Amino acid sequence: MPDKIFPMASMNTWRTEAVASFFEGAGLRLHRCLAPGMVCKGTAIRSHSVQNSRVLDLLARDGHVKGVGKRIEGDAGPVIRFEDIGRNQATTFTGFCSKHDSEIFRSIETEPFRPSDPEHLFLVAYRAVARELHACMEATVQIQGSYEARIRRGLDGGNEPEPMGMFAVEYMIKSWLTYRYKCCFDEALLLRKYDKVSHDVFYLTHASPSLAVCSLYAADDVRGNDDWVRVALNVLPLTQTESVVVFTYLPQDAALAKASLAGVLNSPSFSQKYLLSKQILNHCDNFVVAPEHFDTWSPEKVDTIVDFFSETLFKGNLSAEDERLYLF
Ligand SMILES: [Zn+2]
User: Fold this and answer.
1) What is the pLDDT of residues 86-108, one digit of tens each?
2) Kind and range of the H or E element at 56?
3) Cα of 89 to ligand 1 centre, how many Å?
4) Is the CB of residue 101 less than 8 Å from the CB of residue 117?
């Protein structure tokens, strides 16, 4: 999800030649491998950002989970709604070649997730970071392509500031900032210094697993010195009755992020789940819901959730309160 569009003012903060170099060397090519250094020539495969064999296993019914689909449908325009997604497609992205995908994520793909293991905690966050970089780059390519098509059709001139061109530049900057953020994780991964990032970990209990999340986003209205304060969020069902929630931060973001998330981190169970629901709906698009849990939601509740989620796409972070936004 485009959580927040980075402002044009950011362009003045960064050397434009560095941004240009990123896109010439690595950026505007999809299906490239995002392994550290981004020099791998392998073609990225479609792989899960949420573990398929155990986590999605706890959510899926008849091989499907529920996810939010976004598409343009003829005269209806943008349509956003929950729909069935095959578990083999759910939460996937083309971020790493086969070799790097299996090398980097082997421990969390072949073993049950261990919330006490620094490597496991790091890797689920790393996957959220890589998935967000991929989403930013993909959006940049699509927007830039649309702008170039408008120029070819004579709708835009291409030689002066135009809305679609400005939009493309904003996304290029967002991709660059996300790439720069990922480089911090790359360094920690290469050195196997998993304690270079910190986490808040807590558990949710439930009658049955409700959802899974793997996402990187900007904390509510919080800026550091030269970038938004970012948070990686993973919500992973461990058993039928327990899920783990992992928030991950870079050292320079931790204090501000924790302050922003104080309500989620410190509230009692019901409030915590409600505030976590709002974090997910405000900031994350990479989440899936268990169909059995989804079937317990009334049509009004589904409409409320979809409307809230849709509005965040166009208006950013929303503060409206409604108990029907409770996802658990
Ligand atoms: Zn690779």
Assistant:
1) 999 999 999 999 999 999 999 99
2) none
3) 21
4) no
* Ligand 1 midpoint to CA 229 (Å): 28
- Which of 165, 195, 225 is the last residue in one of the domains? 195
Q: Is 293:209 a contact under the CB 8 Å cutoff?
A: yes
Give the Å distance between the CA of 30 and the centre of ligand 1.
13
Ligand 1 geometric centre to CA of 159 (Å): 37
Alpha helix (H) residue ranges in 86-162: 98-110, 118-152
pTM, full prediction: 0.88
Bridge partners (DSSP) listed for residue 211 = 289
Asked which of 142, 172, 195 is the last residue of a domain, the reply is 195
CB-based contacts of 215: which residues, under 8 Å, 6+ apart? 1, 128, 131, 132, 232, 233, 234, 280, 283, 284, 285, 286, 287
104 alpha carbon – ligand 1 mean position (Å)? 10
Q: What are phi and psi of 320, to 5 degrees?
A: -55, 140
Give residue-wise pLDDT tens across range 210-226: 999 999 999 876 776 66
Q: Examine the domain organization and report whether 119 and 205 are in the same domain.
A: no
Compute, in angstroms, the gap from residue 234 CA to the centroid of ligand 1: 24
